[in-house]
Write a structure and sequence with these properties.
Order of helices and strands: EEEHEEHEHEHHEHEHEHEHEHEHEHHE
CATH topology of the largest domain: Quinone Oxidoreductase, Chain A, domain 1
Keywords: Metal-binding, Oxidoreductase, Zinc
Mean pLDDT: 94
Largest sheet: 7 strands, mixed
Protein name: Alcohol dehydrogenase
Cofactor: Zn(2+)
Family: Belongs to the zinc-containing alcohol dehydrogenase family.
Number of helices: 13
GO molecular function, one term: oxidoreductase activity
Length: about 350
């Protein structure tokens, strides 16, 4: 099959790799029908995630069709259309029993495109399939559904829930990329008083306004002063960091009010300074986190009911074989206006897997 392979910092290639095969009775093999690129993939490409070694197939978000299931898989069968979650869950360890699947110690967690081959391929092996894929209703388009693999549960759980967004809150989202925009959408579920979006790209600020931000500000044009003006100098109740660089994290800690919450969502590849000389007296709560995807079934029901706007997040579409071009467009978002890219491969009518008769 073809797959997008990490070859070291700054280098990727769409190339031939061996087809995946069932390695454990809990595995499923999924034909990838739609896939996307995450900001985390860009961090990997920059060398920010050293656990990802050359030769790894990247990607952790997909919608596809089950073509083979191991003997222990009970919830899906060949032919089922499914969402592949970015998080894999063994279901047995302490953290899985607490629904903290991102911290799974039984062989799951964030493994796809990280420590096992991922979804930016024609086929993907999904471990622990019963808890790691979700059957999809026909009413949800594949390009929309793929947004539920990562960005919506991440923004909701790591941003909105960790930040404890409440009615009438002033919420600031720093970074209006896909995660930040999904945070704007899901924060609105809790009726905050106002949402302020901060970014450097005017196209993303326009998208934030169309998706429900009450105010937007360019990151280079005084966002801290704007937040102070809107809150009579108090600061925001909740500030979400959705970029992953030291400067934006430190900006977030300056914009939060005494007793407020800073919810870090961004993937950081460099140390950020924690200014305790200013923060120790302010009763500020700072949270971090990897998504658990425990909210995915709920978000899936919301999307099926038309309650989760998503169409505006997909700005560019490509064929699966155009993966390298899609990376270039997504990686130059400030120039291209890309928010989220969706890639869809051809629909195969025959499948051949190792040691498996052709379907």
């Amino acid at each position: 099959m073809k797959a997008l392979v990490f070859q070291g910092p700054g280098r990727i290639a769409w190339q031939d790799v061996p087809d995946p095969a069932i390695e454990d009775p809990a595995d499923a093999i999924v034909r990838v029908d739609a896939v996307t690129i995450c900001g985390t993939d860009l961090h990997i490409l920059k060398g920010d995630v050293p656990e990802v070694t050359p030769g790894r197939v990247l990607g952790h978000e997909a919608v596809g069709t089950v073509v083979e299931a191991g003997g222990d898989v009970r919830t899906v069968r060949p032919g089922d259309r499914v969402l592949v979650s970015c998080i894999t869950a063994c279901g047995r360890c302490r953290f899985c029993r607490e629904s903290r699947y991102g911290q799974c110690r039984g062989g799951g967690g964030w493994i796809l495109g990280h420590i096992v081959d991922g979804t930016q391929a024609e086929y993907v092996r999904v471990p622990f399939a019963d808890l790691s894929v979700h059957p999809l209703p026909d009413s949800i388009d594949s390009a929309d559904a793929v947004l539920l693999a990562d960005i919506f549960p991440t923004s909701y759980e790591v941003g909105v829930l960790n930040g404890a967004v409440s009615p009438a809150d002033t919420v600031v989202v720093v970074g209006a990329g896909p995660i930040g925009l999904a945070a704007v959408i899901t924060a609105r579920l809790y009726s905050p008083g106002r949402i302020v979006a901060v970014d450097l790209a005017e196209s993303r600020l326009n998208a934030a306004r169309s998706l429900g931000a009450d105010a937007t500000v360019n990151a280079g044009e005084g966002p801290e002063q704007l937040v102070a003006d809107l809150t009579d100098g108090l600061g925001a109740d909740v500030v979400m960091e959705a970029v992953g660089v030291p400067e934006t994290f430190e900006m977030c800690t300056r914009m939060v009010r005494p007793g407020g919450r800073v919810a870090n969502i961004g993937v950081h590849g460099k140390p950020a300074v924690l200014h305790l000389e200013d923060l120790w007296i302010k009763d500020v709560t700072i949270t971090t986190g990897l998504v658990d995807t425990s909210s995915t079934p709920m978000l899936l029901r919301m999307m099926a009911a038309g309650r989760l706007p998503s169409a505006e997040l997909i700005t560019h579409r490509f064929e699966l074989g155009e993966m390298e071009e899609a990376y270039d467009v997504f990686g130059r978002a400030a120039e291209t206006g890309a928010i989220k890219v969706a890639l869809g491969g051809p629909q195969h009518t025959a499948v051949s897997l190792p040691d498996t008769p052709a379907a």
